[in-house]
Design a protein that fits this description.
With 114 residues, the protein is mainly alpha-helical. The chain has five helices and no strands.
Length: 114
């Protein structure tokens, strides 16, 4: 009986994992589409930021992938100059916190966030 219950729970978890993966891909595609909205630069950059957040959370390699993604965030920060409505301060705060968890931020990012 326990085996049947465990099997049922395992099937349900696998189904939910599959649904989450599909939803994550759909969200990523939509953010990618929004990031190409040249007529709305603040929106496009914010969408790119959210996509990078997703990539950071879901990346399998805890050091190399994260460092690469953090470098992409550096480009976002430099691209945000002069954009009205872009949430720069919360982004810097999040990246500072992530940097303390992953290791030190790349040196070039540290100087651009000060």
């Amino acid at each position: 009986m326990d085996t049947l219950a465990n099997s049922s729970v395992k099937q349900k978890l696998e189904s939910q994992k599959s649904e989450l993966s599909a939803e994550r891909r759909r969200c990523g595609r939509n953010l990618e589409r929004l990031s190409k909205q040249d007529d709305l630069p603040s929106t496009a950059l914010h969408a790119k930021t959210l996509r990078l957040h997703m990539d950071l959370v879901w990346s399998p390699n805890l050091t190399q992938s994260h460092r690469s993604i953090l470098k992409e965030f550096q480009l976002v920060i430099s691209s945000s100059t002069g954009l009205i409505g872009f949430p720069l301060q919360p982004l810097v705060e999040i990246l500072t916190e992530i940097g303390s968890l992953v290791g030190s931020l790349p040196a070039t990012m540290q100087s651009s966030t000060r």
